[in-house]
Amino acid sequence: MKSLVLEEQHVLSLRDFPEISRAEATLGPRDVRIKLHTVGICGSDVHYYTHGRIGPFVITQPMILGHEGAGTVVEIGAEVTTLAVGDRVCMEPGLPDPNSRASRLGLYNVDPAVRFWATPPVHGILRPTCVHPENFTFKLPDTVSFAEAAMVEPLAVGVHAATKARIKPGDTAVVLGAGPIGLVTALSALAAGCARVYVADLSEKKLEIATSLSAAITPINVRSESPASVVARDTDGWGVDVVFEATGSAAAAARVFEPLCPGGCVVMIGGQPEPIQYDAGAAMIREARVENIFRYAHVFPRCVGMLASGAIDVKPLITRTFAFEDSVHAFVVAASAPASDVKMQIELPQ
Ligand SMILES: [Zn+2]
Fold first, then answer.
1. Looking at the domain assignment, is residue 309 inside a domain?
2. Quick one: 162 and 115 in the same domain?
3. The pLDDT value given to residue 112
């Protein structure tokens, strides 16, 4: 029962982790036990490896990484009614206190008590099995592969962002950043009805991947042209309806209103480690609406539905797959941030 353990900053090992086996020896009445099949490597996993912390969350003791998972139900609790042994599933990694004020308001993702996989002190799922509540475990149709299902977690961020933007059919959008989250946001914006989505990045390789996803995506290499100038040229100076900030860069965020049309909406997605400045005057003269998102809520079934119907295809984003036994190497590769990779995944032995 080996797990991929972040021992401390820069130190990973694939080893037995008896604490987790003990903690999950018993199954609650409304829990299921899942044999993991595929787990995606997230930027946050890599950041804990390279920096030992994300904001206030610090690695002070060994922690198992991974939170983007799909697998097969191998055992169900006595009161479970919607899942059966053998069901293929994906899992929502953040568990709120169901009785908290935030949860009762439907805002369970911003419940201060949320316990989220691979966020200290909560262990992740780069391990053979995990126990998870039925309510946060979603059955997959046969047409959705484990690899696609392990993309539901990052896709959920894009779908939540598009939902917050309140996209209408025929809207236009700019996505700043062509990393995994930028690209799932572009796909989500198109699925929500956008007529055109501009994707801006510094990396030509990433922009090539973005362009390959849809004829309705226009790449902008910010080394040679600004999103504002391209959008102004294409829209007779009006601007786009929505700007999604998916870089987490303070410099990009500072100019986020430039391509936005009057009355438009900016959605801040990228995590900002430090307080940032943006042009409040530019926001004001547009009466811009600014939305912030934190992870997602209520969107996993929607994501599974769109993968099943083909409304969204995440397969081109999965650029590399590693065997579980090569997990440590996979993280070394991921930490080097290869320009031509979007999402790397790890497959566990079945
Ligand atoms: Zn993630």
1. no
2. no
3. 96
- Which residues have CB under 8 Å from 328's CB, separation 6+? 4, 12, 13, 14
CA of 156 to the centre of ligand 1 (A): 9
Ligand 1 centroid to Cα of residue 153, in Å, is: 6
- Give me the CATH number covering residue 98: 3.90.180.10
Q: For residue 257, what are the CA distances in angstroms to 186, 281, 290?
A: 18, 9, 10
Q: What is the mean pLDDT of residues 233-247?
A: 98
| Residue 23 placed within a domain | yes
Q: What's the 172 CA to ligand 1 centre distance in angstroms?
A: 26
To the question of pTM greater than 0.90 for the whole model, the response is: yes
Give the span between the Cα atoms of 336 and 322, in whole angstroms.
15
Per residue in 100-152, pLDDT tens?
999 999 999 999 999 999 999 999 999 999 999 999 999 999 999 999 999 99
- Domain containing 34 equals 2-151+314-347
Ligand 1 centroid–CA 294 distance in Å is 12
Q: Which two tokens stand for residue 226?
A: 């600004």
How many Å apart are CA 204 and CA 154, to the nearest integer?
A: 22
